[in-house]
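Researcher: I'd like a structural prediction for the single chain below. Treat it as a standalone chain; there are no partners to consider.
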Amino acid sequence: MTWQFEHVTLGQRVRFGTGQAAVNLAAEVERLGARRVLLIAEDTTEVTSKITVAAHCADVAPHVPVQNAERARKLAAESEADLLVSVGGGSTTGLAKAVALTTGLPIVAVPTTYAGSEATNVWGLTEDARKTTGSDDRVLPVTVIYDAALTESLPPELAVASGCNALAHCVDSMWAPRADPINQALAVEGIRALSHGLRAIGEVEGREMTLYGAYLAAVAFASAGSGLHHKICHVLGGAYNLPHAATHTAVLPYVLAFNAPAAPEAATRITDALGTGGLTGLYEDIGASHVLRGVTDPAEAARLVLPSVPPSNPRPVTEDDLTALLAAASAGLDPTEWSRA
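Model: Treating it as a single chain, here is the predicted structure.
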């Protein structure tokens, strides 16, 4: 095999330390010379106890509605912000990105889930039940501060779903439009770390490993782009206002089962990295659900998704394929036995 590819690695600083978020954030604010911080977080937080906050935006909602983004942008202008600090999950990071997209303000992201948005240059906005996504280097946080202590309070069900969302970044990166040997290597290591970390999510070591895996997953995804799985989930999330992480968790096993026969090498690497039992074994061990909720008409959903399907997907995708996949996921059929082959 002769390799030929073009790979881009996004530039970003990462500070990783359990119990060190407040100290690391203060160090970054000082390093960046910021004087007017706009905090984007649903609640006030101890993370910002060592910095001065000029304004606080708590207007966070899933899938970043356009009207929320416009209000946050207005607050950034009124407060004369020179730095955005986001503390929270993917929706919080997404709102900060929406502000950065039009203002160019830098972001320091402090994630409290395993969403991975903090390590990508991908943004998303929802208006009239349609989610629009894109990529722009202005929305890539200049620094990410990881602290496993901040994920300790996540309810177990949410922690599992968030971690499986990160896992979906890895799996998609194995065959996404810009997949290459570098982001595939990152994805495989991310799968391995997430598989170990999620099984020990109740311990600090497990949460640290899961954060590490989530970061690798996001870096791989940022390079490889959105594959079939993410296109499905982004369309469904915007159209039906579905919970982001739970939707990714439910759909992943079915997309893997659909694509695996057409990408056997990638599928083998994924299975090996997951360990004993593969994805099914992991889901059973951690109590993850593969039941898709909120899609009452799979045929309608398939019509919405089809225009977004990447032409480079390892296996051709028809509207009937998508209908069958979404119907199987909605019914919670055994993903290992389901196939449109």
